[in-house]
Every structure is written in C-alpha cells, then in structure tokens.
Specification:
With about 325 residues, the chain is an alpha/beta fold. The chain has 11 helices and 14 strands. It has a 9-stranded mixed beta sheet, sandwiched between helices.
Length: about 325
C-alpha cells in the first residue's frame, strides 16, 4: 500500500468454514477404529460420526471457534491487527457461541446465520501431538455469493482463505471465488493457504484454475507444496505467486520470491502437546510482519515464534494479547 492510498479499515479479512473445534486427546487405536487417517481432515460419515459422539461423551472436550483461516485472524488480532470474519453458522448454541467468541477477541463478524446445525470439527490429539480432524459441516458450507459484502472486501488490505473452502461443489466454494474477484477489482491483496494434501488431490482442478490468475501470497506446508508441485521443487510455486511461504514444521519456514529464497530455522520445542494451529499461528505472525513492513526474514521469525508457542498447549488459539512482538523476539 503506497502512501497516497487511504488506509483500509481491516488489515486482514478471512473467509472460512465456520467449524467449532471439539478438542479431545485420544490414543492412536481410536483413530484406527474410526478409520481416520492420522494428520489429515476427513468428512465424517454416519457411522464414524456416531462413534465419535460416543467418545466425546466420555471425555471433557475443549471447545473453540475453528477453521484454518479463523485461527489465522484470531492470532493476528491478538497481535493488534484489525481483522474481520466472513462465514456461515447454524441457529444453535455452537453458532452463537462462535460469533460471540470472535467478537470478544476484537474480530468483527460478517456472519450468515442459517436454520440448522453449525459445523463441527472433531479435533483428535494423539500422544505425539499430531492432530486429526473429523468434519461434520452442518450449514458451514451454505455461504452464498450475495452474502459477500463488496465494501468489506474493498476495505481490507488482505483477503485470506484456504483450499478447505473449495472442498466440494458448495455455495461457499463459489462465494469465496466471488470474493476473490471483488478483491482483484479493488486492489485488495489475496492470500491463499493450500490447507491439506488430501484436499489438493480431490480439488486439484479447481485450485489450479483459481491459482492460474496469480495471487499475492501463497502458504503451504511441505506435503501440500509437494502435492501441488508434483515434487519438492518448491520454486514451482512461483507459477502462482511472487511470494510463496513453505512451512517446514520443526525446520521453520522457507520464503520464495522471484529474486531470492530465505529459510529461517524454527525454535526447538521439547514439550509438544498439540500441533493443531501451528501453521495458522505462523501465518498470523507473518501477516503482522508484512503489515509492519518488516523484512521477510523477520516475518518468518515472528511466525516461527508463535508456532513454537502454540504447540506447547492444547488448542489452536492463544488467549494472550501481544503488543510490539517484534521488539522482544
């Protein structure tokens, strides 16, 4: 954003499947019994949904608003960025709780409320800290194109969403792409997270079609980057953007631009409890660095710091507000 442009109200607006996280710690044999592939996100069928509900009834789950882009704006808001959320919830306690939680954390909500059940994400944490997701979408995919406010997208520096919103021929799929068209029209930057290697495989054509018109910022982890590129030549991501970020887990992150590549090693964490939200919190820190016009190496460092801290606790969101994080890292 140049100095002659008016300042936009929001630094970051996210479109996300509005999924309330139901977080429980389980043993690996539970995943086997549910037929859920460890480390991935799978839509639940009637059989494993019933099994999961029985498991949850014997635990004391943590409950929090979820969805990958939601986690990103949650973290960015904690750092002081002005954020907004676009999504769809049901007319139930989970839906109203979702909205209230975001508002309590200084995130403006532009939410559609539909009759029916809100989306739920059963987040299963293994003893090694790995997370596996079982999804019951409810009405979360029922966000329509006409519910995207042009003025909101226009008043945002970045519009952020993920491949998860492209899953299936659902209204939110078309609404998200419609929002991207509005963003391009008004000079709002577009950020896209590849989300999940399973989603890339199932929705490759749609994702590649969307990315054929370059975006401003592309996030991926190693598996997702390989799934899109076909191998580990991450420079191929520059076909879709001039700023790609590959999250390397404990290895930190790699930033790729047409001019250079920058890799910053992650912080060593001995007491890993839950890897859920590590990448999302990294992205929140990276967005903060970009907004503060810090160099890319420092943007990675902030992201690495937040990722390292979130995996020490259960849940994808921190409750800690941090002002001026760049001054003490």
């Amino acid at each position: 954003m140049t100095n002659c442009e008016p300042q936009r109200k929001y630094q970051l607006t996210a479109i996300s499947d509005a999924l309330t996280d139901i977080i429980i710690e389980v043993n690996d044999n539970v995943l086997d019994n549910l037929d859920l592939p460890k480390g991935n996100s799978i839509e639940l069928n009637e059989e494993n949904l019933g099994k999961l509900e029985k498991i949850v009834s014997t635990h004391k789950p943590q409950i929090a608003p979820g969805g990958s882009p939601t986690n990103v704006i949650y973290g960015a808001s904690n750092l002081g960025l002005k954020c907004a959320f676009i999504g769809c919830v049901g007319s139930d306690d989970f839906g109203y709780g979702y909205i209230n939680n975001l508002r309590e954390n200084d995130i403006d909500t532009y939410v559609s409320i539909k009759r029916g059940s809100s989306g739920l994400c059963y987040t299963l944490i293994s003893p090694d800290g790995q997370r596996t997701f079982g999804l019951d979408f409810g009405v979360a995919k029922q966000l329509y194109e006409y519910e995207i406010l042009h003025s909101l997208v226009k008043d945002s520096e970045f519009l952020h969403f993920s491949a998860y919103e492209f899953r299936g021929e659902n209204p939110i799929n078309f609404a998200t792409r419609h929002a991207a068209e509005i963003a391009r029209k008004h000079g709002t930057k577009i950020s896209f997270d590849l989300g999940d290697s399973f989603v890339i495989q199932s929705s490759r054509e749609q994702i590649e079609t969307f990315l054929s018109e370059k975006i401003d910022l592309l996030f991926a982890n190693e598996d997702e980057a390989k799934a899109l590129c076909g191998n580990n030549d991450y420079s191929k991501l520059l076909k879709y953007t001039d700023l790609a970020v590959v999250k390397l887990g404990p290895g930190g992150a790699l930033v790729i631009t047409p001019e250079k590549e920058i890799c910053v090693t992650g912080y060593k964490v001995e007491d890993v409890r839950d890897t859920n939200g590590a990448g999302d919190n990294f992205q929140a820190g990276f967005f903060y660095g970009l907004h503060k016009q810090l160099d890319l190496e420092f943007c990675i460092k902030i992201g690495n710091f937040l990722a390292a801290n979130i995996i020490r606790r259960i849940g994808a969101q921190s409750q800690v507000k941090i002002t001026g994080i760049e001054y003490f890292i």
